[in-house]
Amino acid sequence: MVSGSVQNINTWLNQIQTDFKAAVSVDCVIFGYDNDALKILLSRCDMPPYEHDLSLLGDLVHPDETTDEAARRVLVNKTGFTDVFLEQVQVFSDIKRHPLGRVITIAYYSLIKIDEDHLEHIGKSGLWEWKNVNEIQSLAFDHYNIMHTCLDKLKKQLREQPIGFNLLPVKFSLLQLQRLYEVILQVQLDKRNFRRKLKSLGILKELDEIETSVSHRPARLYTFDTKVYEKKKIAGFAFDL
Amino acid sequence: MVSGSVQNINTWLNQIQTDFKAAVSVDCVIFGYDNDALKILLSRCDMPPYEHDLSLLGDLVHPDETTDEAARRVLVNKTGFTDVFLEQVQVFSDIKRHPLGRVITIAYYSLIKIDEDHLEHIGKSGLWEWKNVNEIQSLAFDHYNIMHTCLDKLKKQLREQPIGFNLLPVKFSLLQLQRLYEVILQVQLDKRNFRRKLKSLGILKELDEIETSVSHRPARLYTFDTKVYEKKKIAGFAFDL
DNA sequence: CCAAAAGTGTTATATTTACACCCATGC
DNA sequence: GCATGGGTGTAAATATAACACTTTTGG
């Protein structure tokens, strides 16, 4: 047995070059938010025995890229976006998780502004579809498990950092933002306390614009002040809701 | 190019079986706490060009184990402990990170009660050594980087969960615990507020024992109440210090 | 004028911070 | 008896939580 003794360079070389290799993939849980629902971008799986299931978007990690780069590549190819929120979550390495052999996968989660034009087209292309998180009962491989791990991480980060903006249009109302938190965290929030809290963080920029074509008093629109945020992030701040 | 189009099963099979494979390893940042200092267990590296550097403890992931199992195997082999705190941190996959070829590594961090007898022996065996975190200037491979990522994660978790106990003897005084937080988080804490906070969490069990052989008034000893903790963890609790 | 969401302050409660002295023990 | 850390409480400041009504718009 190798371990327990000092590592030997020849042992390593042997192992690296022979059977101690595995295929490594990335799988992206791409979250979008639309119609007061949290959604995930999924694709039809064409691999037995999962031909009739949906699966996460992923690919093998190429020899010339890091896993982060691979995840970003998958995202860019599938959504067209280059500048999106993307975060590494966890490794999934059960020996039997993939039917074709040992494939170790790194899970990532990503936040997308779903309402952009071409993203709707993607949804209509038939290759991929947006599915409500609540309505997903099962997925191919261990992807259902991966999805839930990423969802838990999203919830945690949402409480710690103001990342919710990444799921909304550039301009949004405070109620939209509140609903987003309520839907994802599955809590109910007080309108006045929520607004006070957010304004006190100083990362919202009030715009001179208001909602249009709503059949009630239009709400003021806000945008996310990236510059202030970056400054604050370094100091570190909590975001307890 | 594969990605962008629907995944094809034959492409996958080809890639998995040929050049799209990588060696996968685990590297453990094993933290211990002794003499008011945070330490890490390191080993001498015997691989060029790092022959004169220290490195983290790690090994290749075997074909019949998950990465979590591999990390635990490394820990058990090196420290003898089976029931230790062990947490996956992050993947490191720079293409040139390993001199022998592509090796993707999964970083873990672990918390050890350093004061157990056989652990001191380990430290004296010459194969491994405990080194103060503050005194580490560089490590082999990208291990210095890995170490700092794990240290950051430790600091974060220490603020969110009462994991500090894992670094202390089973029985400890409140001052010991406070010093541990101060050393790791690099803050100064108020003795009374710290005690109030901890007692209010209800995860400390007051023992009928006191310190011995100290040249001042001996402190009451406490132990960590795992059962209460497990119950509370499910509900989720913050631990802001 | 009705429906729907926008917008706005105050009070009570809980949490956090700051702070100083006497106590028990070993030498 | 002196050095060392052990142990304790209170008051002020801050943060959080609960709560209801008027306003603006479209139809």
Description:
2 copies of one chain form a homodimer. Chain A has 241 residues and is an alpha+beta fold. Chain A folds into 2 domains: 22-161, Alpha-Beta Complex (Nucleoside Triphosphate Pyrophosphohydrolase); 168-241, Arc Repressor Mutant, subunit A (Orthogonal Bundle), CATH 1.10.10. Chain A has 7 helices and 9 strands, in the order αββββαββαβαααββα. Chain A has helices at residues 9-17, 67-79, 117-124, 143-160, 174-185, 191-201, 226-235; strands at residues 21-34, 37-44, 54-55, 57-60, 85-92, 103-112, 128-132, 204-210, 220-224. In chain A, strands 1, 2, 3, 4, 5, 6 and 7 form a 7-stranded mixed β-sheet that branches. At the A-B interface, α1, β1, α2, β5 and β6 of A face α1, β1, α2, β5 and β6 of B. β1 of chain A pairs antiparallel with β1 of chain B, so a sheet runs across the interface. Chain B binds a DNA duplex (27 and 27 nucleotides) through residues 173-175, 190-193, 195, 197, 211, 213-220, 240.
